[in-house]
Design goal:
Blueprint (H helix, E strand, L loop, with lengths): L21 H4 L7 E6 L15 H10 L1 E2 L1 E3 L5 E3 L2 E6 L5 E6 L13 H14 L10 E8 L2 E6 L6 H5 L3 E2 L18 E7 L3 E6 L12 E6 L3 H9 L5 E2 L4 H4 L7 E4 L6 E7 L9 H9 L3 H8 L28 H11 L5 E8 L3 H15 L3 E8 L1 H9 L5 E7 L5 H12 L6 H12 L3 H18 L2 E6 L4 E4 L2 E2 L2 E2 L5 E2 L4 E2 L2
Helix pairs in contact: 7-9, 8-10, 13-14
Length: 496
């Protein structure tokens, strides 16, 4: 399939021009600065190694480009690749790069640079790097063409490439703290727990942002973030809690939502080691999980509750019964588990997401009735991430934006479980089969079975679709979010 080249867009002229630094940023014309409150700080800007949190991904996609990307409706569109071609057997992917793209350090974005960055991601094995293991050949016939050859068909390969952004090869050593990409904004400065400053890339090959400066301000408390919005300290609050969204004064601000939500809330369990190795105990926990009350209390009645781990809009979604709330069955399963009354289980949640704590408290009350003590452990982002990546938890609250291809869930969320404590060979084989066929009917059958196994075995307990939204001042125009929960900042404007 051949995709036509991008149109080139004219830049939006600024009203005042000043250099950007920590000091100078305070002097920028207000109309030239977009300030966004995010729920936590970032301690690693290298997208090859730190891609777990939604707002991190949103920032990454302002500083970096990928070969292909999503539009706001999750349609795959060209980005650094002005055009691409896929061989009939889906094993050879050819990308023609856009003209005139340069990295923020002035170096040209060449085919060699793209291949170097992709090889680095493959070597580092980050969250989104595993699909590159299927690449047997990285070729650069000329400086504008990249050819990736796979050893076998990989159905979600284009989807996977949307998450693999391209770094300037000269920046690898300092990518953690000084990232250099080719995106619409370039990194300027980071003051931990205070602000991240990005500057408009005046040499951007595509549509240039209207704003000269983009500032991200970590504000973990969503109520404080809303107060900052009303005070004019920020223009946008990225993904606040449901309770805060309900408080929005429409005369001052507006709630911005995507057309649908592909963001799913999960409870991940360390299912085959430690306290939760017993399937009857996991089932007791599941039967004591009151989704409807949680939906009402934690999410303001918004979102859809379901047992299947994939969004209801997925082409492979199966509406499974799972474990409906039933304390009698929960007690029966707890008795079968042989666990002692009063057993303690920890639930890890992330600060800045009060809905997770509220969910935990509802679950805590139900579990107390069957003899389980649930401890809710609230941690800052760095602590939570460390425990998550090292698999050092009993259970953890998490959410994930499932791409249009269902493999994204199994690659990003399930893969660490399957490569670690939950080495379910049947599931491993099915996941491999799901990526090696493009036949829709075959994939539906495969992913139907995968959903059934997950619901039955409970390595992950699906909660519901996550109601995703951001809050913006009424003066902010053309601000959108995609169904994965990523705020899209590059096209934002401000009314006079």
């Amino acid at each position: 399939m051949k995709i036509p080249k991008f149109l080139k867009y004219a830049s939006v002229a600024g009203l005042c021009v000043v250099s950007v630094s920590i000091a100078a940023s305070q002097a920028l014309c207000e109309d030239q600065t977009l300030k966004v409150a995010i729920s936590g700080d970032i301690d690693n800007f290298d997208p090859a190694t730190n891609q777990l949190i939604a707002f991190q991904a949103a920032i990454a996609n302002t500083v970096f480009d990928s070969l292909v990307s999503y539009d706001e409706n999750l349609k795959i569109v060209p980005r650094l690749a002005a055009a691409y071609d896929v061989s009939p057997d889906a094993t050879v992917f050819t990308f023609d790069l856009v003209d005139g793209a340069t990295f923020h350090n002035g170096q040209q974005v060449t085919a060699e640079a793209v291949v170097s960055s992709l090889k680095r991601s493959a070597k580092l094995g980050g969250v989104f790097g595993s699909p590159l293991k299927a690449v047997t050949s990285f070729e650069t016939p000329d400086q504008d063409t990249v050819v990736l050859t796979l050893d076998k068909p990989y159905a979600p390969f284009l989807t996977a490439l949307t998450n693999l952004v391209i770094l300037a090869p000269s920046s690898y050593e300092n990518a953690v703290s000084k990232p250099i990409g080719s995106g619409p904004f370039k990194f300027v400065n980071w003051t931990p727990n205070d602000r991240i400053i990005l500057e408009r890339n005046e040499g951007y090959w595509g549509q240039k942002p209207s704003y000269e400066t983009l500032i991200f301000k970590p504000i973990p408390d969503p109520q404080v973030a809303l107060t900052n919005l009303y005070a004019g300290e920020v223009d946008i609050v990225a993904e606040p809690s449901t309770a805060v969204i309900a408080q929005v004064d429409s005369s001052t601000a507006k709630v911005v939502r995507p057309s649908v939500s592909n963001s799913i809330v999960y409870i991940e369990m360390m299912g085959t080691k430690g306290t939760l190795a017993n399937i009857h105990l996991r089932r007791a926990l599941a039967y004591a999980f009151d989704r409807e009350t949680i939906k009402a209390v934690a999410y303001g009645g918004q979102g859809d509750s379901f047992a299947s781990p994939l969004p209801a809009g997925s082409f492979v979604y199966v509406d499974l019964k799972g474990y409906p709330y039933n304390l009698n069955k929960a007690k029966e399963e707890f008795k079968l588990s042989g666990a002692p009354a009063g057993i303690e289980i920890n639930l890890e949640v992330l600060t800045g997401f009060p809905e997770a704590e509220q969910m935990g408290r509802v679950w805590q009350a139900s579990l107390a009735q069957i003899g389980v003590k649930l401890n809710i452990v609230v941690s800052e982002l760095s602590v939570w991430l460390d425990r998550y990546v090292s698999r050092n938890y009993d259970m953890t609250w998490n959410f994930f934006g499932v791409s249009p291809d269902p493999h994204s869930l199994f690659d990003v969320i399930m893969r660490p479980h399957l490569e670690g404590e939950y080495a379910n060979q049947e599931m491993i084989d099915l996941v491999q089969a799901g990526i090696e066929t493009s036949n829709i009917d075959e994939r539906k059958a495969i992913y139907s079975k995968l959903q059934e196994i997950m619901v039955e075995d409970l390595p992950i307990l699906a909660v519901q679709s996550r109601p995703i939204a951001s809050i913006a001042l009424n003066s902010i125009k053309d601000f959108a979010m995609n169904p994965l929960g990523w705020p899209l900042y590059s096209g934002v404007n401000k009314s006079e």
